[in-house]
Amino acid sequence: MAARTAISAAQLDRTLGVWQRGRDSAYRSLAGSLRTLVLDGRVPVDVRLPAERELSAVLGVSRTTVAAAYEVLRTEGFLASRRGAGSWTALPAGRPMPVAGLSPFPTDSGGVIDLGVAALSAPEPWITTALTAAVAELPAYTRTHGDFPLGLQVLRQAVADRFVQRGLPTTADQIMVTNGAAGALSLLLRQLAGPGERIAVESPSYANALQAIRLCGARPVPVPLAEDGWRLDAWAGTLRAAAPSLAYVIPDFHNPTALVMPEEQRAELVSLARATGTQLIVDETMVELSLDPETPLPLPLAAFDRTGSVITVGSAGKTFWGGLRIGWIRARPELVQRIAADRASLDVCSPLVEQLAVRHLLTESLPEVLAHQRRRVTEQRDALVAAVHEALPDWTFRVPQGGLSLWVRTGEDGPGGSALATAAQRFGVWIGSGPRFGVDGVLERFVRLPYAQPPEVSWEAVRRLAAAAATEAVPAPAPDFSLL
User: Fold this and answer.
1) Tell me, what's the pLDDT at 153?
2) Is the dihedral of CA 40, 41, 45, 49 positive or negative?
3) Which class for 236: exposed (0-12), middle (13-18), buried (19 or more C-beta within 10 A)?
4) What is the pLDDT of residue 23?
5) Is the model's pLDDT at 40 over the cut of 90?
6) Which CATH superfamily includes the segment(s) 113-121+371-471?
């Protein structure tokens, strides 16, 4: 059996951040914080934890405290142990998962409102119409082997045409269809990043992308975002000092902050990356989710690149529906061909029916779908903003003009993000705590709140969050300089 991945006591200490809560005993506070790390995915399942003596020395608590915390987690099913093999993280058997879009709110069946996922339910009737059209077109492909590593030509052309409409000349041979944006990023990291490779990332950044970078053995190097956007002086310093081979950025309705990078900064970032030999991977997953149709979006970041070295990742998941699981890569044709050749040993290709459906949505229904999405997302955003202002008036945030989430700084006298996420579970709400979106446990004063739920669900979720926050009298965490 392969050796389990281990996390050192020093790493776990950094990831825990401020874990002691005023009303709980030390061992219960430690157990609750460790549980949250597992549920957040910041400590994956089946990772070996430090020995009790080692962790107690680093945390500055007694070994009895760590032993009692580990015992709580074993009893709950979040920890498994075997004499001589140590203890490793686990999930309880049969643990119920959160239900997205839960409404009405059950009070007697353990229902959970999921604010951990920033994704919309399907816009109808367009999804059903597109899938029906796709099935009708399928017979033209069933006479083939069905294996198209680059993606169907009709979809590659439709994606290329959409880039052209947005001001970026693109041909179909620059496009590869993937299994969502996550699949696109995984294929790129597999091709371009080796173990120990440095990859510059924004702080905060998309939690699943950070996890993908770690899982490929690379090292994310954080570059802090300011509250109003990107600091190009910080990017210049990081690119020169760390010499990362890659950088992963989200310039359009950034996840989780919903910020948009101005055009002049896009040009400067491309110039900085070219000067230091850093290849940019640009995540455009949220690009179509503008809530202000009167204000045109900046040109795609790749439009400022004359060498073809900027790689763009996109997806149908946020624009249309995540259940379609179709994404794409825009890159130099030779890189596209290399990735496609490598793909045979990973996931081979993307499902044909979903590709045909996305082609239909892009070419036949895009204006109507975007108008529909804009109306409902605006209503959902406004409801969440009003709910937080009313129930949690000391929480602060920018009101985004697009994207799917609020990036919220919690009140100074209340719990930090990790403690709040733990407490919220007891009130039937799942949220993403700030450290999920950072490197090494920073951003403890933040939470991400998606406005992907109907207004009545958001109101109820915030009511529950306010109740959870009121139960958590905790010391303020250490000062957070990540957004300064």
Assistant:
1) 97
2) negative
3) middle
4) 66
5) no
6) Aspartate Aminotransferase, domain 1 (3.90.1150.10)
